[in-house]
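Quick question about two entries, pasted in order.
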Amino acid sequence: MNELTLPITDLKTKVEKLVTSHQQLKKDNEQLVSEKQELEKTIEEQKETITGLLNKNQELVQNKEEEQNQIVSDTKLKINELVQEIDNCIALLK
């Protein structure tokens, strides 16, 4: 009987260690799943931020191009006005 008690006790100890290990691994897994969800949330927030910044950058580029086009148009109009004034002055001199 003593011969059976020792292996059973040894088996019981091993099973208890296995159960303890399983519980610890289960807790670790839950923690990792939680961390993963937090990281995925952070990634989504950063993707939204990047998208917003890209859109804002595109708007700024378009606004700058429009401003430059307006400056060019205004400059051409001013040059035309000056040319007309010069033509008028030349006409008066003749």
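Here is the second entry:
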Amino acid sequence: MRYVVVMMLALALSAGAETRKQLFNGKDMTGWEFSGRASGSKGFAVKDGLLDTGGGKGLLWYTREKLGNVNLRVVYRMSNSKGNSGVFIRIPEPPKSEDDAIHKGIEVQIDDNDNDWHCTGTLYSWTKALARPSKPAGQWNTLDIALDGLRTIVHVNGVLVTDYDGVSPVPEKKYPYEPQRGPRPESGYIGLQNHDERSVISFREISVSLLAKGRPGKAAKPE
């Protein structure tokens, strides 16, 4: 029996099957830490195997390692059409606040109510969406974020939305809530934004896999 299992694993690897590491265990927030503006607020809660946003604006960040040269997958659902959140990447040092993540890292937007520079799958205010394939509130969406050196590639539900090389000029900052411009590192900490209480954002998967050689940004099949 053991020989059969080993052979099956070898065949899967040889066929290029994806091996994913789960960053959220579906039970609690082990490995995560909340940095918020509301004193004592957890900002997030785990319920029925899902990680839900809650009270207290701030950032839930993964403490165990910096991530680079990986495909980060985030599967989320909004409770209503007013949902607003983001996935932060390339944060160079442990963030003391949400502002640290905003101005030192990059936000991959989760909110499809704004224009093409501030919608789901864009690097918030840095890149213009190539498509807008997000599903409406109540349905699950899959974000695949490839960190390929300085390059960032984002697929939403299997559709390419962003492909930014990490060095090309971006538009100047227009609004005070937009991030400071400047270089970002190849690898960094990641985090999830708790923006407000108008909608609950539920996350059922946060995982990473190594980038397939020669195939950066391999996207998940639409659900």
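Reply: The chain has one domain: 19-210. The longest strand covers residues 201-210. Hope that helps.
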